[in-house]
User: What shape does this take?
Amino acid sequence: MSAPTHLVFTPLQSSQPLHVEVPSTVDLDDVLADVAQSGVSAPAGDVAALTAVVADARERGIDLSVVVLDENPGRDTDLRDLATTVGETEGGTVLVLSPNWMGSYSDSVSRVQLETAQDIAFGDSAASTADRFSHEIVEPGPPWALYTVLLVAIVAIIAAVTFVAKWRREPETEQSGHVESSVQRTVGPTGSA
Assistant: This one.
């Protein structure tokens, strides 16, 4: 079997909008109506707490909407597609939660910030997850990637300094070893000439 001699990458170009897949168990009209009314589409037991989270986020300048599904869809990417559909209709930032996954969309927050917030947002309830998510996109945590790069750079500098110091000492060690062997040949093994 031979390896390919070259690869050709062609960008996807389409004049049609990107196809999004809304989970089949979701009544999109009901979700959009709930979100338009209160910013929340969720099971009745979660609505009050999520409405408070949405109101708090809006006070801090985030136009947040939250959709909670009772069950996981077939693919986790369906949640992002649902968030995109709701966000393109209602605007703002949309967080969609299912029991094990979440997806998001925003017309004002970068995808990097959204995904970073998603990574650390899981909580004990839909409300705590949405609250952590909204706080993270406003006040992102420490820049761990920057800290990692700085730590690697410091370790590399220390290693380089150690190498240079060892390299500079090496000729002295060789010279002192040469002197010691000359003295032993002159003096002999018993210490007499």
The beta strands are 40-41, 64-68, 93-97, 102-106. Helices lie at 28-38, 44-59, 77-90, 111-121, 126-138, 144-187. The chain has two domains: 28-138, 142-193. Confidence is low (pLDDT under 50) at residues 1-17.
